[in-house]
Each structure stands twice: as C-alpha cells, then as structure tokens.
Amino acid sequence: MTLVAGVDSSTQSCKVVVRDAETGALVREGRAPHPDGTEVDPAAWAAALQTAIGEAGGFADVAAVAVGGQQHGMVCLDEDGEVVRPALLWNDTRSARAATDLTAELGGGQAWADAVGLVPVASFTVTKLRWLAEHEPASAARTAAVCLPHDWLTWQLAGTPGLDALVTDRGDASGTGYWSPLTEEYRPDLLERAFGRRPVLPRVLGPAERAGVV
C-alpha cells in the first residue's frame, strides 16, 4: 500500500492526514492548535506541524506530502532565512489605509483588477508590505525575502535549503497583489510601489512540479 499525506495549516490549527493513495481511505491523522491572534511567530506553525505529524504516525512510510495553508499573510525573512518579525495573517487589518492608498496610486480599483485580478484590501500581502515599509522601516530594511505562511511551512519541511529554494503555487501567488494570473508572472513594479524595492519571492510552481524533498 502506497501512503500519501496531506497537511492543512489553517489559521486555527494544523491538521495532517495519511491516506491510501489508491483508495483514498484514511489510515491515520493528527492535529495541533495554532495560537490566537492576527500576528503569529511562524515557529508556532512549525511546532504544531511536528506535533500533528507525530500524532499521525510520522512520515517515514509516506511517499509524498502535499501542503495547503492560510493565504495572504506576510512572512519576512532576512538574508540568513531567519524570521524578521511575527507574521501578519490574512485577518490582520492594520494595513487598511495602505490598501486605500495603493488603490488610489495606481488609478483606482479597475487598474488593479486589470493588472493582477484583484483590488487591494487589508488581507493581501501587498498592503502589508506597504504598512511594514511605512511603520517598521528597520524590519523592512532587514527583509531579504517575502513569502506566505504556506510557502514558509513547505520550505521548513524541505529543510530550509536557502532563500532561492522558496516556492509557492498559483493559488497563493494570485492572492499577494503582485502576481498576475493573466501573464503568470510577478509584477515587480507593483512590489516596488508597495515596498520600495524587490525582495526575493518564491518561485511559482506548476501544477505537477515538486516543491522539494522531505
């Protein structure tokens, strides 16, 4: 029997299921809670993941792992891959003013919709980057790479092999505010508008591409 595992790192908890790849039958599972709040140290996600994996019997006999997680948040990493500050989650609304400003700067909501398929609101990463640049310039200056919670957890599972190994998928990238689902490319001009420069961003994987090795 070939086993596969799924990880769901949501706002409230981390859940792991191990299933028979052929039948889909549940073999075992585990879960662990995440801290409350809209600002979270990513280390808490890693700890919850390891607890959930342990409860699910581990991955030693698992052939493949798929990771899903909360979207839109902001995880900032320095040049050594260390977390710069607690991650801002999708439900953190402190960047609402930044969303309004960015929308106006580009010429309104339609201009954003044409560019990246969305209109900025406080949930999206692009607005959180503007907030960081304006309110925590020292943290912004330390930031060498930006990724989403899902991306960071995948990177942790792969052994944090370097900033250039960060990866994401089309679903997560399309919720950042600086990736176009039409061209399937990042919009560095929008990133620079929000943050003032271009940090390292995760490579956007194709549907069948492998993210790494556990």
Secondary-structure map with pairings?
Layout: E1 3-9, E2 13-20, E3 26-33, E4 39-40, H1 42-55, E5 62-69, E6 75-77, E7 87-88, H2 96-105, H3 109-116, H4 125-135, H5 137-142, E8 145-147, H6 149-157, E9 167-168, H7 170-173, E10 179-180, E11 185-186, H8 188-195, E12 203-204
Parallel strand pairs: 1-5, 9-12
Antiparallel strand pairs: 1-2, 2-3, 4-7, 6-8, 10-11
Helix pairs in contact: 2-4, 4-8
Can you give me a brief rundown of this structure?
With 214 residues, this protein is of the alpha+beta class. The chain has helices at 42-55, 96-105, 109-116, 125-135, 137-142, 149-157, 170-173, 188-195, and strands spanning 3-9, 13-20, 26-33, 39-40, 62-69, 75-77, 87-88, 145-147, 167-168, 179-180, 185-186, 203-204.
Give an overview of the whole structure.
This protein is of the alpha+beta class. The protein folds into 2 domains: 1-69, Nucleotidyltransferase, domain 5, CATH 3.30.420; 73-213, ATPase, nucleotide binding domain (Nucleotidyltransferase, domain 5). It is built from 8 helices and 12 strands. A hairpin with a 3-residue loop joins strand 1 (3-9) and strand 2 (13-20). The chain is globular.
